[in-house]
Design a protein that fits this description.
Shape: elongated
Number of helices: 9
Structural class: alpha+beta
Strand content: 15-25%
Organism: Mesocestoides corti (Flatworm)
Protein name: WD_REPEATS_REGION domain-containing protein
Largest sheet: 6 strands, mixed
Keywords: Cell projection, Coiled coil, Cytoplasm, Cytoskeleton, Repeat, WD repeat
Number of strands: 27
Subcellular location: Cell projection, Cilium; Cytoplasm, Cytoskeleton
Helix content: 40-55%
Distance between the termini: 35 Å
Length: 706
Amino acid sequence: MDYDKSGKLFVTSSSDRTLFLFHAHGPRIKANGFVRLPANANKVQWHYGNSQTPEPTLLLYLDNSCVIEVSIPNRKAAEKGTFEITDAVALRGFRMESVAGQLRVIEQNVYRRAAYEEAKKKREEDLTKLLQQGQITEEDFMRAADDERKLHAKLEDELAALRPVVPEVPSPVLDGFVCHDDPSLLWINLGDFDAGYIYKCSLMPLLDAPENSPRQVEKGSTEEREITDLEAVLDRVQSMKPVQSSRIRDCNDSPLLSWKFSVTGKRVLMGFENGFVRVQMLNKAFDFGSLDAYWTYAFQDNNRGPVNKIRLTFDDSFVIAVGGDGTFFVLELMSESAQEIEVSKLLTRLPSSVHEPIEEEDIRDSNEFSIEQARRKAERDKLVEAGEEKRRETRRQLAELRLRFKKLKDQNERLPAHMRVNTREYEMLPFLREQLMNQRKKQIEIFDKKVAFESRRRSIALQKLVDRFRKSVSCDFIVLKAFGAPDWVSSIRKNKLPPEHFELLQRLREEAKLEEEAESRDNRKTTVQDKSQTRATVMRSTSTVETSLVQKIKGARGLRLARQLQFMEAARIKREKRRQQWEALYAMKPTEKWEDPNDVAAIEYVKNNMGDFKLKSASNYTAPESKKRTAKQSRLALLEAMTQISERQESFNQRLLKLRNKKAAIIKELNGIDQTLKQLTVDLPPDGIVIRLKVDNLDDEEYPER
């Protein structure tokens, strides 16, 4: 990603071979359009100074050893959202040929020749010394000279047998910048096989596109589309070798991922894949061809801590390094003036006996490494680096063996059929292949188990999320729109009532029912007691009459008469009591026009002052205990009200869903009619009137389940 000089344009690239252009408005950015690229771009950079186009262009550093300069029109989208920019023009570019193999062969020649010359010089000195001491003769000396010539001839043969390796897969371009002297020259660094060097290349014009060439079409997706000129530009890019190459010393061919120049250009900060940060001095500002002394600092993880990005603050005081292991380091950087002073000082000073003894600064922090821990860490880092070097050497040898095997295989295919070697003869040890296949099968099984475990873990996590956020939702928010009108109706997004609600409601209803039954039993008990008291009174009067009759008449006849007299006396007393009540009632009966003044005043007061009747607004009213609402009854009423509200909301949502299904059926029917009209228009003349239906489908607001 990169901003232009004005800070108004912002561009990013991703691994799906797309490049997005944004407009920056303060802290906000707005996507404007995207461009499809021919390959993945590891870095994009604004380029200024092209005489062909006054507007700034973009440099694309691709993962197939290509660098392309592209001009993208800057315009706003006519419609809302982003759009694809299909008229991006590729101006210049190049495909760098791999020269790392040749450079390594040259370096190996120089190294082995220098080692041979040093060993030869030492051998000559030893022979001369032995000859002077008389331990060898002239013949031995001449024989040693012949052996030396044989060693030299053997060395020359071995060096002549060295062949540069060319990788099958192009190395990716990781970073680059434009030369300050000439904007058409670039310094780039590559990864994989071509790592360990910085290359200077020139932007070259593209080859002319073939005339009347058919437009290529991309297939395999949901819709076919024409491939843009930018996507097909790789065939027009010219291959070239770098103008200049500069070796990065002592980096063990670890890819250089990022760099940043200081303000003066005399220093460059480098971040490597193995976690090392280097401060590289330059003899000439902004020129990698003049590398000088350097300082290396290792603070990232060797295996998981590549320095993906390194930057300097505006005053070169601090270094900001971001690692691939998720670490973010800020380091203090010595200024160039202070660096020159420190370098000019003596590195070591012997203490003088004249002066006072120098107090050495001791480590006082308990968290710091001890000498033994530092030694072990240094040994471990050395072993890790040796292992990395061995692994890189093994990979390089494997690449050479693969290349030789491929050449031999191609050579075998070009031979006549009767002279070809059977492919089964390639297998030196058949049981070794079977063993490797079994190991591969076991690894696949282990991988399948890991994938199954991860899939199960993710499915459980998804189910938990669904249970937490979606399972409790009875109906989602749905907006149902009318045909050809702005009217709409929405559903009520509600959660299901929890099971605890229904359990509590059922328990409260059962308790209320038990209380009602207990109250009814109490009422029945009171009625039975009243009847028992009346019956006791009658029995007492009857017993009195019986006593008097029994006193007069003896025997069975007297008992019968006494019983009859008791019934007659009870009936008489009852009639007399009822007659007295009627007389008292008739005596109290007022005239038809009579009105109680207290009632009249009370009615007038109630008409003027009474509010809600259930609240009993009278100042002297006191509700009886049986009529007072308890907390349990209020809770039951609240739960029943919540249940009724939920049922009515659910009923409304169900009716809305039925209405949506009806609308979907109508849309389906209209689409069928539209297809029929489309078939009928085929038979009509071209200048005939074409009638088609414009049917609006259900959108995401009406059908959020999709």
